[in-house]
TrEMBL record:
This is Rubredoxin-NAD+ reductase. InterPro entries: FAD-bd_OxRdtase (IPR050260), FAD/NAD-bd_sf (IPR036188), FAD/NAD-binding_dom (IPR023753), Rbx-bd (IPR041364). The lineage of its organism: Bacteria, Pseudomonadati, Pseudomonadota, Betaproteobacteria, Nitrosomonadales. It comes from the Bacteria. Its cofactor is FAD. Belongs to the FAD-dependent oxidoreductase family. The keyword Phosphoprotein does not apply. The keyword Transferase does not apply.
C-alpha cells in the first residue's frame, strides 16, 4: 500500500473501532487519527446515565490519546481541526494551515446537537451534551442547583431525565409529542414509559413547544406555545442530532441528510469513506453503537484490501432508563403492518407485524424485556 497514512478524522467510537479492527488485519500501514478534542477513548452513551453513579468526566475516559496511540500503533493528533479536504491532491488542511496527505481518508466526524430556533436572550445559555466537554459543562452548571428542564422526550431526553432524577434533581421534560419516545414507541408503550418515569419523579409537559427563553439572574424563564410559563435553574436540550457534513459538502462529496456512502461505506470519491453518525448508508442514518461496530469491522477489511460490503442484522436498542427498562427495534420506515400490544402492570409487549404475521419490529418495556433475545431472532435484517 501507499506510504501515505490512512487518515481518520474523528476519535469517537467509529474512528477508534475502525483503527482497532484495521490493526488486527494490517500492523504496518501508518494510521493517523485527527481529533478535535483530547483524543482519549470513552463511551459516549455513558454520558446520559453517569450522574446518578457519580461519574466524573475524568473517570469516564478509559484510555488517553497517548495510551490509544501506543495500543494501536498509530499517531494521534489531539486538538486538531480539519478546515478543508482536497480529494484531487488527497490532502486535508488543518486549521493552522498545515497540509496532511492521505492514501485513504475515513470521515468519522459524528453529529452536532440540533438547536431549536428559540427566542429570548436565554436561548444562548441552553446546554446540550454530545461529548465529554459538554458533560463537564453540565456538571459545572449543576453545582448548587436543583431544577433541570429538558427539551425533548426522545431517547437521550428520557435517559437524562431518569439519570438526573435518580441523582436528586427536580426534572421537567417538554416535548411536542403526546408521549415519550414518540418516534420509537407506540402510544401504549410511550404511556407506560411516562408513568414509570413520573413515578420516579419526572414531570412531563407533552404536546407543548417551547417558544421563549428568558434569563433572569440565575434562573431561566420558559414560555410555552400554550402560554404556560416555567422557571428552572438549567435548561438541557436533547432534541436530536444532525450529521456533520460541512467538510464533505465543501469537498464536493455527495451529501443528503448525511454523507452519502454505498454499502462499502465509500463516498462518491473512491479514496474517501464515512461511517457512524455522519454517514448515510443507502438512505439510512444509524447512529447507535451496534451499527457503528458492524460498519467499522467491514470498513477495516475494505481498507485492508478485502472489499467488504456492510450487512446490518437486526440491532435492537437498549434504552438506559432504569425506572422503566426498555428495548426497542423499530420497524423500517414505510414498513406495512400494525402494532399488536399486550400490557399489564409489569410491562408492555408491542410487536409490529405484517398482515401475514411476520415480525418487523418490537418495543418491550418493563418485565417484557426478558423476551428481547428470543424475539430478536425473528426480526429481519436491517440491511442484507
Amino acid at each position: 500500500m501507499s506510504t501515505q497514512p490512512i487518515v481518520i478524522i474523528g476519535s469517537g467510537l467509529g474512528g477508534y473501532t475502525v483503527a482497532r479492527e484495521f490493526r488486527k488485519l494490517d500492523t504496518t500501514t501508518p494510521v493517523l487519527i485527527i481529533s478535535a478534542d483530547h483524543g482519549g477513548f470513552y463511551s459516549k452513551p455513558m454520558l446520559s446515565n453517569a450522574l446518578a453513579t457519580g461519574k466524573t468526566p475524568a473517570s469516564i475516559v478509559t484510555a488517553s490519546a497517548e495510551k490509544m496511540a501506543e495500543q494501536l500503533k498509530l499517531t494521534i493528533r489531539p486538538y486538531s481541526r480539519v478546515s478543508a479536504i482536497d480529494p484531487s491532491s488527497k490532502t486535508i488542511t488543518l486549521q493552522d494551515g498545515e497540509k496532511v496527505s492521505y492514501s485513504k481518508l475515513v470521515l468519522a466526524m459524528g453529529a452536532n446537537p440540533i438547536r431549536l430556533p428559540l427566542e429570548g436572550e436565554g436561548a444562548k445559555d441552553i446546554l446540550s451534551v454530545n461529548d465529554l466537554e459538554d458533560y463537564q459543562r453540565l456538571c459545572d452548571a449543576l453545582g448548587g442547583k436543583k431544577d433541570v428542564t429538558i427539551l425533548g422526550a426522545g431517547l437521550i431526553g428520557c435517559e437524562f431525565a431518569n439519570d438526573l432524577t435518580a441523582a436528586g434533581y427536580r426534572v421537567r421534560v417538554i416535548d411536542i409529542s403526546v408521549h415519550p419516545l414518540g418516534r420509537l414507541l407506540p402510544q401504549t408503550g410511550g404511556a407506560f414509559m411516562q408513568r414509570r418515569l413520573e413515578a420516579a419523579g419526572v414531570v412531563f409537559h407533552l404536546g407543548a413547544a417551547t417558544e421563549y427563553v428568558e434569563r433572569i439572574h440565575e434562573s431561566f424563564h420558559l414560555t410555552l406555545a400554550n402560554g404556560e410559563t416555567l422557571q428552572t435553574d438549567i435548561v438541557l436540550s436533547a432534541v436530536g442530532l444532525r450529521p456533520r457534513t460541512t467538510l464533505a459538502q465543501a469537498a464536493g462529496l455527495g451529501v443528503n441528510r448525511g454523507i452519502v456512502v454505498n454499502r462499502s461505506l465509500q463516498t462518491h470519491n473512491e479514496d474517501i469513506y464515512a461511517l457512524g453518525d455522519c454517514a448515510e448508508v443507502e438512505g439510512r442514518i444509524l447512529p447507535f453503537v451496534m451499527p457503528i461496530m458492524h460498519a467499522a469491522r467491514g470498513l477495516a477489511s475494505t481498507l485492508a484490501e478485502t472489499p467488504t460490503p456492510i450487512r446490518y442484522p437486526a440491532m435492537p436498542v437498549l434504552v438506559k432508563t432504569p425506572a422503566c427498562p426498555a428495548v426497542v427495534s423499530p420497524p423500517a420506515a414505510g414498513a406495512q403492518g400494525e402494532w399488536l400490544v399486550e400490557e399489564d402492570e409489569s410491562g408492555v409487549k408491542a410487536l409490529y407485524k405484517t398482515a401475514e404475521g411476520k415480525l418487523l419490529g418490537y418495543a418491550l418495556l418493563g418485565a417484557a424485556t426478558k423476551e428481547k433475545n428470543a424475539l430478536a431472532a425473528e426480526l429481519p435484517a436491517v440491511m442484507e
